[in-house]
Amino acid sequence: MTLAGKTAVVTGSNSGIGLGIVQEMARAGADVVLNSFTDTKDDHKLAEDIAKEFGVTARYIAADMSKSDQCRMLIEEAGACDILVNNAGIQHVAPVEDFPTEKWDAIIAINMSSAFHTTAAALPMMRKSGWGRVVNIASAHGLRASPYKSAYVTAKHGVIGLTKTIALETAGQGITCNAVCPGYVLTPIVEKQLPDQMKTHKMDRETVMREVILAKQPSKQFATIAQIAGITVFLCGPSADQITGTTISADGGWTAS
Ligand code: NAD
User: Fold this and answer.
1) Ligand 1 in contact with 222 (CB < 6 A)?
2) Which of 162, 189, 251, 255 to mutate to test the pocket of ligand 1 (most atoms within 8 A of CB)?
3) Whose CA, among 10, 118, 145, 232, lies 20 to 30 Å from 4?
4) Regarding the domain with residue range 7-184+223-256, which homologous superfamily does it belong to in the CATH classification?
5) pLDDT in tens, 71-124
6) How many helices, marked H, and strands, marked E, lie in the chain?
7) What does the pLDDT look like over 27-37, one tens digit per residue?
């Protein structure tokens, strides 16, 4: 399968799953646009390295996905967007009555509303060329809840609702919209939760990962960045032409029960 001639914009792609997706898109021949809210030399170097390694055009565009105008500006500045991967996301864990309002607002904006704004900006380009792929990186938490993650669970459920709506609005137009729902993947967003969990549960790192983090994941194995990136690229290939408005879980059996 080749994505040569396509441009893929991946939000939140200077680390973790997003970076893995960008690399897999470039390996498949797509030109890529990386993004995060920072604008450092290292951010731009990531794009340079991908361009060199895969022989594609790669650019880094700084845009804050918590701001509606910057979400839309990202797509405008990209100039082309055949493949849009809404991946940017943050997490905060607290009981609902203690959940800081600014954290709620940020999670809803970055994890959910950004996908609305980028998709709204990208669809006219996709309709013009008669081909487009929107892949939203949701979560097992888009299908199941966990305590203390009210904003994250709400945002990810919302993204799946958006996915289904966009699929209906674009059906038959050469455009598909799907959500990938990973269980736990060992990336910075999960690494950041480990020290607190080790303290709370008085457990070492390995035990916290197995007993706490992977408690709901029957396989007791993390999904990998490469697996999530592979699923995302698959959704952009011809075998997935009729897959739209649905979710693909990679959660070691979490949502089977
Ligand atoms: P990560 O922290 O490595 O990546 C998050 C990315 O989002 C980073 O590139 C970060 O710079 C970017 N980002 C954060 N705030 C932003 C903003 N305001 N504007 C633009 N970019 C911003 O974490 P990850 O695990 O790679 O997460 C990627 C996506 O996968 C998220 O949507 C997350 O919810 C989802 N996910 C992760 C897991 C997991 O276990 N790691 C499981 C299910 C879903």
Assistant:
1) no
2) 189
3) 118
4) NAD(P)-binding Rossmann-like Domain (3.40.50.720)
5) 999 999 999 999 999 999 999 999 999 999 999 999 999 999 999 999 999 999
6) 10, 7
7) 999 999 999 99
